[in-house]
Automatic annotation (TrEMBL):
Residues 1-14 have a biased composition (Low complexity). The keyword Ribonucleoprotein does not apply. NCBIfam families: phosphate_pstC (TIGR02138). The lineage of its organism: Bacteria, Bacillati, Actinomycetota, Actinomycetes, Micrococcales. The chain crosses the membrane at residues 42-69, 89-122, 134-158, 189-207, 302-324. It comes from the Bacteria. Belongs to the binding-protein-dependent transport system permease family. CysTW subfamily. The gene is pstC. It is found in: Cell membrane. Residues 97-324 form the ABC transmembrane type-1 domain. It is a multi-pass membrane protein. The keyword Coiled coil does not apply. InterPro entries: MetI-like, MetI-like_sf, Phosphate_PstC, Phosphate_Transport_Permease. This is Phosphate transport system permease protein. Residues 1-34 are annotated as: Disordered.
């Protein structure tokens, strides 16, 4: 009886990966093959990196332009001893900053609750037949030019709001916001804030709606299965999940309100005070509206002061966006 021949060790040994070859040139060859990149990848990477850097370059150029062009106003200001006829930049810019921030905050206070309510209605309550066209209408409302909102506010809204303003001043005049002596036509900060609220409402609504629609469906069904009502599910699941998105949407709306020009210019009677009376006329103004109204006939000195206020608005917007980014990052980590 013949016994089977012993297996050849060379035939039974596992094949060795070239990447693990003990040959000195094996790893180098594999590394060389891996380092080869397709032309499409190189082009796409270059375009992506270049596009990202273009944003920083643009912001840097804008900041440099505003800083350089506002240096004459800073140098000749009363704060730096510019001379007997020098104008105080604080007296010139501070009331404009106050009016800009005040109007934007009032608009945000009015717009955010309504926007969240509309977004929740579209995403969780309205039937699809109604939610789809309503979402389209919200998106189209965001594309309406600001001059149209200005015409609507100055021609239609101001007369319609006058009886309400008179009632607020009569019965709630003890409250600082509704105090003072309003006059007609009531082109005041309250009307401008309402117009700004209508303008930023579609932006906040559209972003919040998309965030609420991304809520995990299993979490909502689990809450309903545990006996939660529709509102309790929204409060316990949807709103916490979309908190960072709502903050981002609100900051986008705030940025739009801070930089709005034509709508405010067409509705607001300008002033230069720190008054809290939003029903009084001729008490407030914003940086953007002031620049638009005075830049056409401005002398070099006045133009330098206007550019300085533009620099201040640029810094305010940058700081607000940075704070919003920090809040969103903290909410995401939590």
């Amino acid at each position: 009886m013949s016994t089977p021949a012993a297996a050849d060790p060379a035939s039974t040994a596992p094949e060795q990966d070239p990447a693990q070859s003990p040959e000195p040139g094996g790893s180098k060859a594999v590394a060389g093959r891996r380092s080869k990149r397709r032309p499409g990848d190189v082009i796409f990477t270059g375009l992506s990196v270049g596009s990202g850097l273009l944003i920083f370059v643009t912001l840097a150029l804008v900041a440099i332009f505003l800083t350089v062009r506002s240096i004459p106003a800073i140098r000749d200001s009363k704060e730096l001893g510019g001379g007997p006829d020098a104008i105080s930049l604080w007296s010139f810019a501070a009331p404009l900053v106050f009016g800009t921030v005040f109007a934007a905050l009032l608009a945000l206070i009015m717009a955010v609750p309504v926007s969240i309510g509309i977004a929740l209605f579209i995403s969780h309550f309205a039937p699809r037949r109604l939610a789809t066209p309503l979402g389209f209408m919200i998106d189209l409302l965001a594309a309406v030019p600001s001059v149209v909102f200005g015409l609507w506010g100055g021609v239609w809204l101001v007369p319609k709001m006058q009886p309400l303003y008179e009632l607020l001043n009569k019965y709630l005049g003890w409250f600082p916001l509704f105090g003072g002596e309003p006059s007609t036509p009531m082109r005041n900060l309250a009307t401008a804030s309402i117009v700004l609220a209508v303008m930023i409402l579609p932006i906040i609504t559209a972003v919040s709606r998309e965030v609420f629609l991304q809520t995990p469906r299993l979490q909502e069904e689990a809450a309903l299965a545990l006996g939660a009502t529709r509102w309790e599910t929204i409060r316990a699941v949807v709103l916490p999940f979309g908190r960072s998105g709502v903050v981002s949407a609100s900051m986008l709306g705030l940025g739009r309100a801070l930089g709005e020009t034509m709508a405010v210019l067409m509705v607001l009677s300008p002033g230069s005070t720190f008054s809290l009376h939003i029903l009084e006329v001729g008490k407030h103004n914003t940086i953007a509206a002031n620049i638009a109204s005075q830049s056409a006939e401005a002398t070099p000195d006045v133009m330098a002061r206007l550019i300085f206020t533009g620099l201040v608005l640029f810094i305010i917007t940058f700081v607000i966006n940075a704070l919003a980014r920090a809040i969103v990052s903290r909410s995401a980590k939590a």
